[in-house]
Amino acid sequence: SILKRYKTLQASLEAVFPEYNWEAMHFRSRAPNNYWESLENQRHFFDEFARRYHIKEPGDWSKITYSMVLHDGGGSILQRYSSLRDALHAVYPENKEIGLEIKSRAPNHHWKSLENQRQFFNEFTTKHNIKSPSDWSKVSYRQVVDAGGGSILREYSSLLSALATIFPEQQWDISTRTIAPKHFWIDVDNAKDFVSQFKELYQIKQDKDWYRVSLAQFHQAGGAALARRYDSLYELLKVVYPDKKWDKKSFQSRSKRSAQRWMFLQVQKAFPDCEVVEEYLHEDLSRKSGRAVELDVFVPARQIAFEYQGEHHFQDSPGIGSGFIELHQQRDNE
After folding, report:
1. 27: Cβ–Cβ under 8 A, 6 or more apart, which residues?
2. Chain centroid to CA 64: how far?
3. Which of 88, 121, 189, 279 places its Cα 20 to 30 Å from the Cα of 46?
4. Can you tell which superkingdom this protein's organism belongs to (predicted)?
């Protein structure tokens, strides 16, 4: 209640204890939510900063670095601007010469530090009232960039990847970022971010891997609304990766074995230290015809095989054609 009456902790102490010289002391008080959105409060911070560092002329700012302002507690202000110079121009619009020679941007490798990245996102979560991982569903990729986090996001393949690395103590998965607000998918950057997250989940490393992803899998991962907006996965990827050439027919293939590939990925996770082979021809096993048995997924070092029993093992499938159910069941019995 007391602090709400004053702009800063220093201001309150000056009023309560006027007998002390508070100007000589350095404070890094935590401001209430939305405090730094006010240009007046930003100006007060820089006025105090200028007094501490004996800045009396516009040219004196040339000796000030981005790190100095950051260390003095100005990070919440700096993240609102692309540079220290831009911050000073916004705070002191009447002075066009201020900061012309200033070292305005973050020093090299500043945002490669996990500690600095975490500080940025901690301030971002406070400003946007983010209490849990699910609250990030309200945040777009563009919002983080506009808040000054572009340099951090460039270090990662997606916003989800950044969050999972910076806050490893939290539980993150693709569903954390899929409950999107209205008009969220209009922004292409948000679509690109989701596709990057999906690539990580399904370990898509080559373009042809996309042809083995089903629309149902994309929907289950939270991309139903996104897919509807672009009519198909094919149309979406044309927008996200405009320089790549996509084969529309391969996306429409009914024999992409998407579920089998998903099983293959899960087996890889279960046996991280072993080679895992998909569609393995086992030369020591043969059918009545003499042909080698093909196994959907095989772990040679453990001699363990996994077979995906799709619907075509139990009923005729339009994608494979009628009359094949007997063949599959015969092979299963062998």
Report:
1. 8, 9, 10, 73
2. 33
3. 121
4. Eukaryota
